[in-house]
# Entry
Amino acid sequence: FAEKWPLPAAAEGAPATTDTAPYAVVADTFADISAVGSRLECTKLLTRLFWAIIARCPQDLLSTVYVAVNKQAPAHEGVELGIGDAILVKVVAECCAMTEARVKELYQKTGDLAEVAQNSKKNQATLVKPKPLTVQRVFRTMKDVALMNGKDVVRRRGDAMKSLLRDAKGPEVNFLVRAFQCKMRMGLAEPTVLVALGYAFALNSLGATAVGNMSPEALQVRLNMGAEGLARVYHEVPSLDIVVDAVLVHGFEILNPDSDVAKLHKTLLSIRPGLPVRPQLAQPTNGITTILNRFQGKRFTCEYKYDGERAQIHYRKGDGFQIFSRNSETHTTKYPDVIQMMPSVFNSDDTTSFIIDAEVVAVDESGNLQAFQVLQHRGRKNIELKDVTIHVCIFAFDIMYYNGAPVLHKTLTQRRELLASVFTVLDGKFRFAQSIDSEDTEEMQRFLEKSIVDGCEGLMVKTLDVEAEYTPAKRSKYWLKLKKDYMEGATDTLDLVAMGAYFGKGKRTGVFGGFLLGCYDAESDEYQSVCKIGTGFSDDMLESLTETLNTLAVPSMPQYYRTNDKPDVWLSESQVWEVRAADLSISPVHFGGYGLVDPNRGIALRFPRFLRIREDKGPTNATSAQQVADMYRQQSLALSAKGEEE
Ligand code: ATP
# Structure
């Protein structure tokens, strides 16, 4: 890295140049990252790359970050490369002077098309000297490919990919093919990239000399300010385009909400209609007594916990409505009936914009709540109004933005008043979450039972005035979920990532018969196995899972997986499954919450049972290592309480 692209004088405080960043520098960094095992090393390598880019050619930073996460636009825009293996094999064959049959053969043998391309290109004599690739060109071409449609699209996409691959050398070839395949296999999930970016901004704000003179402790404080500040603004404004530009233009201090510059440009990095806000989350709790203890002295409310799908509804006069899922995906075209209904539940003369938080629930003709499974039968996108057969009702429970300003900092009491003053109920279509503001145990118990009879999962209990702000992405200890299952002694369900699969035996020959599942640890950005699962699947389900999961197979265990188990097939992290277990135990094989409860061992699930695929969760939204550890601790507490009772 230093030889190819030595850190510029700019890192010492000189002004940035108009250089363009060579893609070779990025590909070399990716190769180094692929070779090191530790998350810390990966972060360091990436920080160094970003810092050099900021110091030397800041105009290339956005492209570099997008290339590192292998995305072409903010996630909610749904821009995807979606390149099939067949076209890629063709592209590789043409660029590496081989027949398609030969490429296919080598690919089948090694399982790694990127490696095949890199090796073949190495041995290829070239007549024309390739034009060195720049990061900008790589990013722009990838984006063009992702957005291409219409006539001749396959040929045009192929040509664009070939143009890059022809000019690529060494590791560039490898990482371009991985990027086309959407299998970067470096273990660089978005959270790590954001941490590195936050660090790089922090380092750049100090300059290399000051960094060299600082104590490690003081430096770490500054680095953390960068990483935490960036994560906070990104939860509110999940667009790299906006965030990166804001920091480059206004400086590092804009990440500190108390700084003058942040106050001066308050609206630049705060929530707005059109950009999904990462929703606030809740913690499980196993009884009314726990809630009363937790909320001692704080007024709270109990709301029905509806069994549907989270819907964040955005509106701006002139732009219309948008709906985002829990996972910040665009669901606007999934709910044309909701979009049509919305104008009739508020007065558009007084209301110019809003963001509300709600649950969308399937209802029958008389407005009775239907189970979540009914909602699942609605198509996923591009639904025509005339084709809607499963009707839904919106249950609004919060408001985050109103008439041009965020209201996150207001208390829940104030936000609820605002919500009630802006919107009106429309029977069977738009309602407010049913609630009681009572601290009476018996009344709460009756309300809980009524919620179940009415078809809900239980209650959501929230503080009203103290600690009652809306904090995006936070799993708040002042939002507690009380589900019927917890009351019956069962643990909460877990949402786990499919890490590997085992070939079926006997009746299950020919399909996968079992799977290795894991939780996600954001600290180390790794997936930690928690169980093997083979129960809860129908035969049809196993067949369709086998078909889907085969497309996710990778040749070896990704280095960001942690397990002692060896499935027959490793899977790249993608699907999230909801699972119920009998209980949790300390394990010699599995790594869930490693080090959090036992210093040298992880936690495993006993007798896990598959419930459903969580379409609304991505792998990094899976149950976290911390949550697994919390569940284990809660279970131990419950057991010792039971022991004392007996
Ligand atoms: P989590 O979102 O906590 O990771 P999860 O997606 O499995 O877990 P649940 O355990 O079912 O969700 O609980 C939280 C979800 O409950 C919210 O994301 C929301 O969709 C839903 N919900 C239903 N009613 C309410 C309500 N009144 N207030 C807040 N959320 C509610």
